[in-house]
């Protein structure tokens, strides 16, 4: 069940309630006011385990694209020498 954040429009108090997705009731303020609005808050996300870095994604085959040198075009060097001749 998610935790929803609310703010009272009368006194400005912010509070949280654990509610199910299907629950449509709006809770009362801790001070007893009924004019309450639900706030939008970012969800809590926890990344666990491996696979979150470029070096972790290709662990099984021993070929890591981040650690391999890039191939330079040898054709460009040849074309420059032939133009100068």
Name some characteristics of this structure:
alpha+beta; 85 residues
What does this structure look like?
There is one protein chain. The protein is an alpha+beta fold and 85 residues long. The chain has a domain of 37 residues. Helix content is 13%, strand content 18%. It has 1 helix and 3 strands. The chain has a 3-stranded antiparallel sheet, with no helix packed on it. A hairpin with a 5-residue loop joins strand 1 and strand 2.
Brief summary of the model shown:
The protein is α+β, with helices and mostly antiparallel strands. The protein has 1 helix and 3 strands, in the order E-E-E-H.
On the 0-100 scale, what is the average pLDDT? 75
Largest sheet: 3 strands, antiparallel
Alpha-carbon Rg, integer: 29 Å
Strand content: 15-25%
Helix content range of the residues, please? Answer: 10-25%
Report, as a whole number of angstroms, the end-to-end distance.
76 Å
Question: How large is the count of helical segments?
Answer: 1
**How do the SSEs run, as a string of H and E?**
EEEH
What shape does the CA trace take? elongated
- List low-pLDDT spans: none
The class by helix and strand makeup works out as: alpha+beta
């Amino acid at each position: 069940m998610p935790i929803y954040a609310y703010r009272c429009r009368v006194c400005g108090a912010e509070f949280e309630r654990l509610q199910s997705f299907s629950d449509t009731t709006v809770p009362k303020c801790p001070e007893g006011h009924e004019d309450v609005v639900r706030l939008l808050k970012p969800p809590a996300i926890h990344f666990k385990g491996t696979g979150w870095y470029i070096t972790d994604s290709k662990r099984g085959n021993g070929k890591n694209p981040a650690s391999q040198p890039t191939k330079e075009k040898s054709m460009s060097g040849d074309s420059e020498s032939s133009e100068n001749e």
